[in-house]
Every structure is written in C-alpha cells, then in structure tokens.
Write a structure and sequence with these properties.
Layout lengths: L5 E5 L16 E6 H15 L3 E5 L1 H5 L3 H10 L4 E4 L2 H9 L6 E3 L10 H5 L3 E4 L2 H13 L4 E6 L14 H10 L3 E7 L11 H19 L6 E3 L3 H6 L7 E4 L1 H4 L17 E5 L3 E5 L4 E2 L5 E2 L4 E5 L1
Parallel strand pairs: 3-4, 3-10, 4-5, 5-6, 6-7, 7-8, 8-9
Antiparallel strand pairs: 1-2, 2-11, 12-15, 13-14
Helix pairs in contact: 1-3, 7-8
The protein binds pyridoxal-5'-phosphate (PLP).
Pyridoxal-5'-phosphate binds next to helix 9, strand 10 and helix 10.
C-alpha cells in the first residue's frame, strides 16, 4: 500500500473554464506519489552504489516539485536537481534540507544572493561566474558548494575539457567555494547506437583524470541521466541525475527491459454521456478513431 497521498490538480481552470471554485471538477490530473516513490526505489537500486539525484526542475516535470522531492527523498534519493535558483529557493521554503544542485547558470545580470543564502549548490562553467559566486559567498560569510560542468559533447553549458583543470584548481584555491563535484550531460544516451555515448564518456573520464592530475580532488563525479543509467549502468560514477524515470517514463522503448517503471500521472475527466455506437462510427473531429466493432463510447 502506498503511504503517499494522491495529489490532484484541477486543470479545467487552465482550459479556460471559469466558475465557482466549488463546482464539480470536469478534468484534472492525478499524481500518485506512491508510484513516484516506487520508481525512485527501483532506480536507487539500479544506481547503487552511486547516489541518486532526483531532478525536479520545471515543477517536477509538471508533477509538483515539492511533493515529488519529498517522495523521492523518502524513497532513497539523496539530492535534488533544479533548473533555476527560484526553484531551489521554493524547495528550501518548503522545509527541504537535502542538497539541491542548480543545473542552470544564472545570467551575468542576475543576483546570486538568494542562491548563496538558500545554501544551494551552484553549477560553474566559467571563471567569471565562479568569481561572482566567491564574492557573494564571502560577503555573506558563507561557503558555497560548487559542481564544475564540463562540455563533453552536448554543446550547451560547460567548460571546455582542456580548460577544466585550471578552472578546477582556481575554484579549489578560493576559501568561500567548495569544489564538491564535476559533471557533464549526455546528448544521445537514448539512442540505440552507443558510439557517441562512449565518446562522451571517454571525454568525461579524461577530464576527471586531468583535474585530478592537476592536484584537485573530485569527490562527486556524475554523468548519467535516466537514459544513461538504463543504457550504461557502468557509467553511474558517484551519482546519477534522474528525472524522467522518477515520473515513470522511459527515454526510449529499447530501454524498457532494464527496470519496471510506472507513470505517476493520470489525466482524469468526469464523463458527461455514455452511449453505444455501431462498428464503423467515426469519433470526433477528423474521425480521429473509427470503431472496428460495436462499442460503448464515453464523452466528457
Ligand atoms: C543536466 C541535467 N541532468 C539530468 C537531467 C535529467 O534528465 P532525464 O529526465 O532524462 O533523466 C536533466 C534534465 O533535463 C538535466 O538538464
């Protein structure tokens, strides 16, 4: 039996329906937090001995970040990943104390005060950003945990591998910064052909080795998202960053066999009318579906 409540969200408001708040609901989504917990437990087991970071950005992929974060942490996740500082601050305001990594980068004009004050862990990819972070942490007389993101083939955020050792060394030399992790992000782990995944994994390993050869310890290395964990569990390093899988989705059909996951979200609608229709009846605009046999049709 699930120990987690079902959360339901009324979506009829978003569909433009207005009316008294206590009107009967016409359509809503239900998120089963017990399913989130069960998915998390299975993924934690698969990731072991690596730790699992539950990625709850974009309001927990639309499932409700706070509720998903709590369910995933209770089920064995040890850290959370968000896209932005405000997402992390909202989780802190809800009383969540687990480590929270901000996966995105704050723009040059954005203040870093809240990130530091909320004890969030920052992603760093440039010396300029690391300097701003160090200054803000010193101003608040705090130490900020930092994960250095290395570009290995996603072509988005990340310091170039050849520049990573120098940046890591600089971060490690600054007393208001704590270099806790080094990570990268996989671009094609959901594809059946693993060659590019292998290339990225090779570059990541080389970057970690070069950082260590520069005399900087790297306590937490992480590379795999859900697809990476399912496709190549040997690339789990010290931590995996799992989003999709928590919510019960597979990144690709060929990865279904690795672990049994169930979708946590269901779209529900109250039925307005039920009738029998004969075979051959077309249903809705453009005859989206044509009945192959006499059927009972429910309309909302
Ligand atoms: C940097 C990073 N790591 C991990 C994830 C989780 O990916 P997935 O939902 O495919 O598991 C994301 C999601 O966007 C991400 O941006």
């Amino acid at each position: 039996m699930s120990t987690h409540p079902r959360e339901s969200v009324d979506v009829s408001r978003d569909a433009g329906v207005t009316g008294p708040v206590d009107r009967p609901r016409r359509a809503w989504v239900e998120v089963d937090l017990g399913v989130v917990a069960a998915n998390t437990r299975r993924l934690v087991q698969l990731a072991r001995p690596a730790r699992l970071m539950a990625v709850v950005k974009a309001d927990g992929y639309g499932h409700g970040a706070r509720a998903v974060a709590r369910a995933a942490l209770d089920a064995g996740a040890e850290a959370l990943g968000v896209a932005t500082t405000p997402e992390g601050v909202a989780l802190r305001a809800a009383g969540i104390r687990a480590p929270i990594l901000v996966l995105g980068i704050e723009g040059a004009a954005e203040p870093l005060e809240a990130l530091v004050a909320a004890d969030l862990t920052a992603t760093v990819t440039t010396r300029a950003f690391a300097q701003r972070l160090a200054d803000e942490a010193a101003r608040q007389q705090r130490r900020v945990r930092v994960h250095l993101k290395v570009e290995t083939g996603m072509g988005r955020l990340g310091v170039l591998p050849e520049e990573a050792p120098a940046l890591a060394r600089w971060i490690a030399s600054v007393s208001s910064l704590e270099l806790e992790g080094v990570y990268s992000h996989l671009a094609t782990a959901d594809e059946e052909d693993p060659s590019y995944l292998r290339e990225q994994a090779y570059r990541f390993r080389a970057a970690c080795e070069a950082i260590e050869a520069a005399g900087v310890a790297v306590p937490v290395r992480h590379l795999a998202n859900t697809a990476g964990l399912l496709a190549a569990p040997e690339l789990r390093y010290d931590m995996v960053r799992v989003g999709l899988g928590l919510y019960g989705y597979y990144p690709a059909d060929h990865l279904r066999g690795r672990v049994a996951l169930r979708p946590a979200l269901r779209v529900m609608a109250a039925v307005a009318e039920v009738r029998r229709l004969p075979a051959g009846s077309g249903i809705s605009y453009g005859r989206t579906h044509v009945l192959t046999r006499p059927s009972t049709v429910a309309t909302r």
